Fold this protein.
Amino acid sequence: MQSFKDLSRITYRRKIFRRYYCSHPQDTLGPPGRLKRYLVNKFVKTIEKCENFVETNNPTAFKFYKTFKVGFNDLLEDTKTYYQVSKDIWYNSKELHTFSRKELVIYQQMPSEMIKAAPMLVVAMMPGAFVIFPTILPVAYLYPKLLLTSHFWTEEIKIEVYKQRHIDRIKHLPIILDHMEIACRHIPHTEYKLKMEQIFQKLENSLHPTVEEILEVKPVFETYNFKAEKLSFAYSRHLAKTFGFSLRRSKLVQEGLLVLHTDRAIVREGFNSMTEEDINMSCLSRGLNPYGIKRDEKENYLESWTQISKEVDEHSMSLLLHGPVLLALNHPSNRHLLGGKKFRWRRKKKKEVV
């Protein structure tokens, strides 16, 4: 009969054998000791108390802290998404319709955001950044529109910046309409010329053509003087500025395709999957001021837009690029920004349009 000492020795050897020679190593860990658990819990509770204290006694500082914390995480996630989508498009030749709405939006927006974020990231990677960065950050928040990406903006700053950007874009809509009216004079097809004339009359009377009326003149935007590749430099420049595109005419159709496939992703995923901010950004990028109107009205606008875009391809891309003029120029939320009730488009007698 084996003694207790012998059994202990055998047990110890078995443990050593399993530890060094077992092909399936242990994949669980025991709970930490009482002291470690106490310290971790104390640390978490202290952080929570600090947050609550700052929130109560200095709500402004807490608001900026929270915004920066969330903003940095969002920037990191969007950068990863942009890198992955770019790699799939550039190297794996992945088709645009395979991406989600969010992925396509990030792919369009992140290049400008990354340029704006670059100076702050350079400072963060410098030696002694832990000393410099806390000093630079408050300065950056004094000029958030210039020094910080939209990930770090408060809701108030976002609305202010997006509204001003929208005003700068829709100022080009009346000029685009002037170019359209002049180009229409050279349409040889009498039927299409008459239909375009009816659209101009509606726009002149502060109305909008219906989706059906717009789709009826789709062939006009595939040929004649409205085809994207045939537009004058001034005409294409105003269209590009309406969407915030590159001013290079050669990129007009390419960037329009991203909008087109984003539209189709919206239809696939549905409006229910979109947050209020997603809806607002989608309206802004398609020519409508979303602030001050109900969600139903925004969705109705996007519904009309997607009804047109689903009939568009690369050959009729010009029709989609004229969407803000045809669907949003006279919308009350846009007219409010363009001068209120006094705003009304009138045909120019002169043939030359800037």
